[in-house]
Amino acid sequence: MEEVGFSANSFTRSTTAGEKFSPLSLEQAQKASFFLQSFPQYCPTPLVSLPRLAEKLGLRSILIKDESKRFNLNAFKVLGSAYALGRILAEKLSLDSDKINLEALKQAMEKQGLPIITFTTATDGNHGRGLAWAANYLGHKAIIYMPAGSSAARVKNIAATGAKVIVTDLNYDQTVDLARREALKHGRMLVQDTVSKDHDQIPLWIMTGYMVMAVEAMDQLIDFGLTMPSHLLLQCGVGSFPASILSFFNELKGSAKPCTAIVEPSRADPFFESAKAGDGTIRTVDGSLDTIMAGLACGVPNPLAWEIAHQHCHFFFSCPDYIAAYGMRILANPLPGDPGLVSGESGAVTCGLLSALCLQEKFHVLRQKMGLGKDSVVLLFNTEGDTDPQMYRKILWDGAFPLPE
To answer: Which residues pair with 344 in a beta bridge?
Structure first.
């Protein structure tokens, strides 16, 4: 039976409030927020409180940023894609990228007669859908590569934006390499959220777009009489999402930063393996990366994300698929008085892990190490809704991937 893997980080260092320890800054996050707010589809996603679940788990508060509501695309990824495309187009049009908005961008494209650009990426689903939507909305094209075994529903949703979708017979990381090679060969614009030697600026723009979730969450905490979470549990694929959120909170609060944990699938857990090795060196994981958490099924980390995580994240977890399924069922079947949430496999794993940590006696010492208790305010991110409806029903209706006895 697969067990939850855990590693404390011996490299975590202190910061002071306002210290800029990465290219991802609060200033840049505000610029991304300004641009994304110019889309008519923009609206801050809800920050949902689950007081009955918090009471059940022995915590003060559980708050979940529900990204299933983002731009009607059922996931947060469009924040990064749309902002990156905005910055790319602004550069091509010689616009001041610090002050761009959607209307100025469209007017400049029409006035200057910008040729149609073909954007491309590799995706497990959500990033590709966000990129394809943004490219189509801005009058351009997209070619999206997907790994073997991709959900038919995710393929269909991307194709519905007008993009060309190519499902490969490769795993995710091999599909990323293919998309990169094809972009160079055919003159396409690669928009991938992994930093590499020849692809470093665009991933930063994508990650900056993700920070908008934290900008919104900090404003929304006030509605619950709170100023700062004590704990952040962040799911992790290539690492761009958790690194973005870590960057925001570390620069904002410095040494008063929340206790943070990165959470990965046990069959695609390079951050956990890197942390467990204990030498600060990045590791990779290969193979089929077979997990129901398709959005997290990555074996090659974003190097910048690892640099941020290994300096500023406190704990790393490797979770079997049944933890994600457990979280999905908890959120969809709330305790009386709590709202229900539709959360997909990648969106729910942190809720599943938090519940297991707090309710199962075998995690008693670990709870103490993490400082989880009656004063804890835990912030989670539901990063996707039911992006694979068939798998969602299989787990919720049929009870697939139950907790082990």
So the answer is: none
Q: Which residues contact 398 (CB under 8 A, 6 or more apart)?
A: none
Q: Summarize pLDDT for 289-347 with one digit per residue, the tens.
A: 999 999 999 999 999 999 999 989 999 999 999 999 999 999 999 999 999 999 999 99
Q: What is d(CA 57, CA 48) in angstroms, rounded to the nearest whole number?
A: 17
pLDDT at 21 over 60: no
Rounded Cα gap, residues 126 and 294, in angstroms: 10
- For the chain, the maximum distance between any two Cα atoms, rounded to a whole number of angstroms, is 65
* 18: confidence class by pLDDT, cuts 50, 70, 90: low
The amino acid occupying position 235 is Q
Q: In what order do the strands lie in the sheet with 377-382?
A: 5-8, 315-319, 259-265, 231-235, 377-382, 61-66, 47-49
pLDDT, tens only, 203-262: 999 999 999 999 999 999 999 999 899 999 999 999 999 999 999 998 887 657 899 999
* Distance, CA of 54 to CA of 194 (rounded, Å): 35
77 catalytically annotated: yes
Between CA 266 and CA 309 the distance in angstroms is 18
Tokens representing 189 are 């614009």
Could you give the C-alpha distances from 138 to 39, 133, 152, 198, in angstroms and in order?
Answer: 11, 9, 26, 25
**Is beta strand 47-49 parallel, antiparallel or unpaired with respect to 61-66?**
antiparallel
Q: Which of 31, 65, 69, 124 is catalytic?
A: 124
**Stretch(es) of the chain classified as CATH 3.40.50.1100:** 5-75+212-396, 78-206
What's the CA angle centered on 253, arms 250 and 259, to 5 degrees?
65
Tell me the CATH class for 78-206.
Answer: alpha beta
Instruction: Kindly report the number of other CB atoms within 10 A of residue 52's CB atom.
Output: 14
- Assigned architecture for domain 5-75+212-396: 3-Layer(aba) Sandwich (3.40)
Q: Is 185 an active-site residue?
A: no
Give CA–CA dist 254/244, Å, rounded. Answer: 15
Helix (H) or strand (E) segment spanning residue 307: helix 303-312
Structure tokens at 296: 């997290």
Q: How far apart are CA 373 and CA 298, in angstroms?
A: 32
Could you say which of 31, 77, 386, 388 is catalytic? 77
The 10s digit of each residue's pLDDT in 107-137 is: 999 999 999 999 999 999 999 999 999 999 9
